[in-house]
């Protein structure tokens, strides 16, 4: 698996998400400012609701724009066995039940999933408990995290 390919797929997905979010924000803005949504009495809240939706859509556009900018500015470096896992690493992780997954440690865009040669890759960030726990780890290392009171153990199987 090539981390440059994964990185490009992440950027493509973020660009697509941004386009969709911008169109949704424009539609919500148009609905909020349309003359038919002007309140006729104090109980007519359609315009107010539309403006809340427009504001939320605008925030979502900014979040995606920020994630895209951070990921575009990410310089991919080869895995350094002296430093360990850093942002930009593509890694294989196995849980205590033997379930293996691929993760890409990015500056933003957590939860995004891409597929490379039939293999799903999930984007995580250093702000997550797992991402924070992975920083500085090495291939073959084990780590333990606690999420919502549940202890989880993982082994790093491969790093690129």
Radius of gyration: 20 Å
Q: How would a textbook summarize the main sheet?
A: 6 strands, mixed
Order of strands in the sheet with most strands: 3-4-2-1-6-5
pLDDT averaged over residues: 93
Class by helix and strand content?
A: alpha+beta
Number of helices: 3
Distance between the termini: 8 Å
Give the SSE string.
Answer: HHEEEEHEE
Uncertain spans: none
- Which descriptor suits the 3D outline? elongated
How many domains, as an integer?
2
Number of strands: 6
**β content, as a range?**
15-25%
Instruction: Give the fraction of residues assigned to helices.
Output: 40-55%
In words, what does this structure look like?
- This is GreA/GreB family elongation factor.
- One of its GO terms (molecular function) is DNA binding.
- By secondary structure, this protein is an alpha+beta fold.
- It folds into 2 domains: 70 residues; 70 residues, Roll (Chitinase A, domain 3), CATH 3.10.50.30.
- It contains 3 helices and 6 strands; from the N terminus they run H-H-E-E-E-E-H-E-E.
- It has a 6-stranded mixed β-sheet with strand order 3-4-2-1-6-5.
- A hairpin with a 4-residue loop joins strand 1 and strand 2.
- Helix 1 packs antiparallel against helix 2.
- It is elongated, with a radius of gyration of 20 Å.
- It starts with a helix and ends with a strand.
- The model has no long low-confidence stretch (mean pLDDT 93).
């Amino acid at each position: 698996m090539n981390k440059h390919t994964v990185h490009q797929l992440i950027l493509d997905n973020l660009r697509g998400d941004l386009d969709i979010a911008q169109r949704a924000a424009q539609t919500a803005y148009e609905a909020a400012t349309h003359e038919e949504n002007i309140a006729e009495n104090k109980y007519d809240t359609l315009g107010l609701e539309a403006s809340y939706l427009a504001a939320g859509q605008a925030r979502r556009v900014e979040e995606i724009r920020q994630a895209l900018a951070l990921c575009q500015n990410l310089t991919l470096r080869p895995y350094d066995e002296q430093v360990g896992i850093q942002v930009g690493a593509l890694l294989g992780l196995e849980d205590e039940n033997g379930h293996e997954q691929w993760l890409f440690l990015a500056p933003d865009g957590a939860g995004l999933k891409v597929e490379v040669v039939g293999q799903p890759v999930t984007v995580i960030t250093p702000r997550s408990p797992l991402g924070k726990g992975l920083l500085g780890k090495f291939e073959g290392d084990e780590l333990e995290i606690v999420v919502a009171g549940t202890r989880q153990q993982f082994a790093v199987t491969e790093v690129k």
